[in-house]
Design goal:
There is one protein chain. It contains 18 helices and four strands. By secondary structure, it is mainly alpha-helical. It folds into three domains: about 1-100 and about 350-390, no CATH class; about 100-280, no CATH class; about 285-350, Alpha-Beta Plaits, CATH 3.30.70. The strands form two sheets. It has a two-stranded parallel ribbon with strand order 1-2. It has a two-stranded antiparallel ribbon with strand order 3-4. The longest helix is centred in the C-terminal third of the chain and has 37 residues, at about 350-385. The radius of gyration is 21 Å and the shape is globular.
Length: about 400
């Protein structure tokens, strides 16, 4: 029987149910260990939240291994993670401070949870002056600076810019909005726009170093809309709030819907631009078998971060901005695109390379997302039973 083109792209990565289960067993153990931290859940709601989260994660990992499809099963997890993070984060902040608003007192007392997007703004002033310019605690609190830096270093070494496709708790929001329409309304975006994030990165690093203040967080971060924001007490803070809301609606909601791309991540985010450089140090990349490629352009049209173009296809490798989400691998009708381990033959054992990538990528996703999803489930149970999430 002749296979159709769509099936041909994943046939080499598919596994039998038994083999897929055996491959997934170590991940089951690791996710259970991570979710429980070696402790028994204290009550039935915690047991239910733990069980749902554990089954949810491992079902999707099994399906990734079984079917050979990566993005198809990464995306639901990633989007759920983003929604759960917002529910969990806002609820926790309200419990701690009583409001999403960040007051001057909160800033002076270093009560702002540290966000990975601030990393480029923090590193250079810290290297030059040994001063942390972010109003958060170094250790010992919720989302401390040290804990986020450790997670970022580990993710960067393991995944490179794959951090943006597997670990960033904001990326799932625009990923979700980008999948609402079946076809894009805006089909072409000029290549020049893909260099904008590097300009934003340079701008915020220089201004943050000069002002000793995280300027992106203060003026340009769209995600202040769904996390925390400076309390509106003056014309300045009102302008900041309007900017945050406008950028969120434009870059995270409207443009992803119209373009079916991650426009905040691919066209604006300074952390994404900064993280692209870690792809050079990461062992994994995406390769294109030019002998199989028929130049249909599907990978170029569907890449969320504009990491495929004619030049990259001609070179046989994705651009430095690739976040290794696997969408191009899933989409390619000829199976010409695959995960690859640098320094190994290409074409090679693409199925093996993919599994080698999936373990650290999925484990980081489970590490970053597991607590948020479990906590969100607990808060939803609490809302149903008590009428309040906090």
């Amino acid at each position: 029987m002749k296979r159709d083109a769509k099936d041909a792209s994943t046939v080499s990565s598919r596994q039998s149910p038994l083999r897929a289960l055996l491959i997934a067993l170590p991940m089951m153990f690791l996710t259970l260990l991570m979710l429980t931290a070696g402790k028994r859940p204290p009550d039935p709601p915690h047991v239910a939240a733990l069980a749902i989260t554990f089954v949810f994660f491992n079902l999707f990992f099994f399906l990734m291994v079984r079917t050979g499809k990566t993005d198809r099963y990464r995306a639901p997890l990633f989007i759920t993670y983003a929604v759960a993070f917002v529910i969990s984060f806002i609820s926790r902040i309200i419990e701690i401070r009583g409001s999403m608003a960040l007051t001057e007192t909160n800033i002076l007392q270093a009560q702002a949870p540290f966000c990975h997007i601030a990393i480029p703004m923090v590193l250079i002033p810290a290297a030059l002056t040994k001063t942390i310019i972010y109003p958060g605690t170094i250790i010992g609190s919720f989302a401390s600076i040290s804990s986020m830096l450790i997670l970022w270093i580990g993710a960067s070494l393991s995944l490179g810019r794959g951090f943006c496709g597997w670990a960033c708790f904001f990326g799932g929001l625009e990923d979700g909005f980008s999948r609402i329409l079946k076809r894009p309304v805006i089909k072409r975006i000029g290549a020049t726009w893909t260099y904008l994030p590097y300009a934003v990165l340079l701008l915020i690093v220089l201004t943050s170093a000069a002002a000793f203040s995280p300027t992106y967080c203060e003026w340009l971060c769209p995600f202040k809309t769904v996390t925390e924001y400076v309390q509106v007490t003056s014309l300045k803070t009102l302008i900041q709030a309007i900017i945050f809301l406008s950028l969120f609606l434009g870059l995270v909601v409207v443009l992803p819907i119209l373009t079916k791309r991650r426009t905040q991540c691919g066209l604006f985010c300074p952390f994404g631009a900064f993280q692209s450089f870690t792809n050079k140090a990461n062992v994994f990349d995406i390769r294109i078998d030019r002998d199989k490629c028929v130049k249909c352009g599907r990978c170029v049209r569907t890449c969320p971060t504009f990491s495929m173009n004619d030049a990259s296809i001609a070179e046989g490798v994705s651009r430095i901005t690739c976040m290794k989400c696997g969408k191009c691998v899933d989409t390619c009708p000829k199976g010409a695109i695959s995960y690859h381990v640098k320094g190994t033959p290409h074409p090679g054992r693409s199925d093996r390379y993919r599994l080698l990538f999936l373990y650290p990528a999925f484990l980081f996703l489970a590490t970053m997302a597991g607590g948020s999803i479990r906590d969100a489930i607990l808060r939803i149970i609490k809302l149903v039973t008590t009428g309040s999430m906090v």
